Amino acid sequence: MKNLLLIIGILFSVTSIAQNIIAQDLIISDYVEGTLLIPNTKTNTLAIIIPGSGPTDRDGNQNFMKSNSLKFLAQDLSNKGIATFRYDKRALTMLKKGASEKQIKKVRFDDFATDAKKVVSYFKNRIRYDKIYIIGHSQGSLVGMLAATENVEGFISIAGPGKPIDQIILDQIGMMGANDLVESAKKTFEIMKTGKVDKNFNPGLANIFNLDIQPFIMNWISYSPTEELAKLIIPTLIINGTNDIQVATADAELLKKAKENSELVIIENMNHVFKTVASKDPQENTKTYNMPQLKNAPELAREIIVFIKK
Fold first, then answer.
1. CA distances, 265 to each of 6, 140, 217, 238 (Å)
2. Where in the chain is the domain with CATH 3.40.50.1820?
3. What's the fold here for domain 2-162+225-308?
4. 73: nearest Cα among 279, 82, 64
5. Among candidates 247, 207, 220, 208, which has minimal Cα distance to 165?
6. Which of 27, 99, 185, 223 has a CA positioned 20 to 30 A from the CA of residue 265?
7. pLDDT, tens digit, for every residue of 203-258?
8. Torsion of CA 93, 71, 273, 66, to 10 degrees
9. CA separation for the pair 215, 217 (Å, rounded)
């Protein structure tokens, strides 16, 4: 009965969004629901788009933060004959299905990689697409690296951090000038790396090391983006914007150094949500995080299309 309902759901979720694109909502698993964009022109190439951190939906949006970044990217690629599939983060899907806060707190970083791998397997087993590419944005870059080890033609990182998450957090605390908190955070991370939670963390770091959050971070810090990227033997494209105030171009350069045969593209004035922002004012930059009608920087899709169609 469950499989029958799933098939019915797929059959009745096909809509045309443009003359040359058909949108099809799919349920891949209990935790993965997304949208497949199919160009009318026959294609054997699919790009799977993995969202960044937080309860992010398939369009790249969260509550109070709507940029449609991933939606526009998918449409731009599909308009050029590349099928795309983008999906909601696991926690968001669970929320929609009425999961309790306790259930959501059990989600681990590895679960994101599991979801991405299931998406790859789903499409690989259906023959329609011989060439599958993974596009990971921000946190989704590392998730994509973990999922791109099999059945994937190429990998694309957009605004992917080059440092492990513990180092990123330490850097951010350090930028606040709180050296005592940096040392406290280091001690907590060392404990977490042994597989234990730190029940005596500095109260000033409660927003980072809450006992409910520590197991997730513990899992996340076990992965180094540069080490995971170096394992990939497939063609790789690394993209970053010069006006990204969340992930600097230095991170892209770290990834490039880890995989020297990868391609590195730096897009002038592009920010973290793919918008072109000439101003260096952080407030002007973040305004675009909630401008759902503002299109992406055109160079982004252009560079990805060139990479995929080589």
1. 40, 18, 30, 6
2. 2-162+225-308
3. Rossmann fold (3.40.50)
4. 82
5. 220
6. 223
7. 999 999 999 999 999 999 999 999 999 999 999 999 999 999 999 999 999 999 99
8. -60
9. 6
